[in-house]
Predict the structure.
Amino acid sequence: MEYKTAEEFLVDIKKEFRGRDEEIVKVTELKRIEQRGKAMEEFVQEFKRAARRSGYKEKPLVEEFKREINGAIC
């Protein structure tokens, strides 16, 4: 495929990889959540919001949840 301008090339690249970048950002957001001093109810709500956007399902999602709650609770 040939491009007349660099801008055409960049637009094409962005179209191709846009979804992938958004997915990576959402998964990273999920992995950054930690319970720390939050009440469990507050943490669960925050986790659920991030989980819906991450695309994670079932076992990987459960593993993330267990990794992020306080160790004493786990």
Observations:
- The mean pLDDT is 84.
- The longest helix spans residues 6-32.
- The two ends are 53 Å apart (CA to CA).
